[in-house]
Amino acid sequence: MSTAAACPPAEAVPVPMSAAPGRQLVAVPYGSLARLFTTTASAAPERHSEPPALTPRQSAVLGLMAEGDGNAVIARTLNCSEHTVKNVIYELMGRLQARNRAHAVAHAVRGGLI
Amino acid sequence: MGDPIPVGVVALDPVLEAGTKSTLISCPDLTVTVRAEEPRVVVMIVDHFTHAELDLLRTTHDAPHRPSVVLVASELTPGEALHALAAGARGLLRRREADAPHLARAVLGAARGDCVLPPDLLGQLLDHSRADRTAAKTPSPWAAATLSPRERSVLRMVADGHETSEIARTLAYSQRTVTTVLHDVTQRFRLRNRAHAVAYTLRAGLL
Q1: Would you call B34 helix, strand, or coil by DSSP?
Q2: pLDDT tens digits for range B9-39
Q3: Cβ contact (<8 Å) for B161 and A100?
């Protein structure tokens, strides 16, 4: 029983099976990553502590704006008319109190909305 | 869980691609797409993550149906990981960790809008973003992938909603300088416009 003697006791820490330890992964909402990694110096003075809730369509449009897409591409990607995209953006500007697209996108990334 | 998530594979070589596909097929919550189908998540397997792989990530993510990308690389430094995330990666794994359960978790997480990554890499990213990046002088292909103080001050004003004329007035630059600075940044990081530049640099922790 020389092999049994080499076995670790039952309460020993499990030995990793390979170079990949049975380590767990963590899941972080993509929107909160930027907030975690953004240097505090660039955090804009918050006008409202609670970021406004967005509809799924508003989030989708904002997400594509953040990737640099124009209205035509956003409309094609979301399968709607450019007119709809313009309306959604108009509402977004009001809700986020944003002056322009870059402002809206910055607000959304900093607030963890997208 | 509903319908299985359609997932595609982008790999450097056919053997790796076939191996990854057969790993993914073993997961009941996933279905591997064939040629004409549109995957919701693409698993991209690379060796090193250089500018070429960053471009590949972008091209993959820019497909009309905008798949989320789970990046699997041999090694990822914090700087590389941040650029991958800013370019749209929704999951980071190292190749030695990419077994079937981990791949499935990362793909399902990406489909949900989460970013799945190893906890030690998350820790490194947090340390990296707290460190003074201007002092960091590690020679790497990503050394140039930072912002100069001037670029940072202009981009911060863009992020705060200011137009070119206001930025020029506040920072005492000519409007032409402001435009040039922004043009340089968008060219260097291959970004499309100001909104893209603001989102990218915020997400990469550069701003």
Answers
A1: coil
A2: 999 889 999 999 999 999 999 999 987 788 9
A3: yes
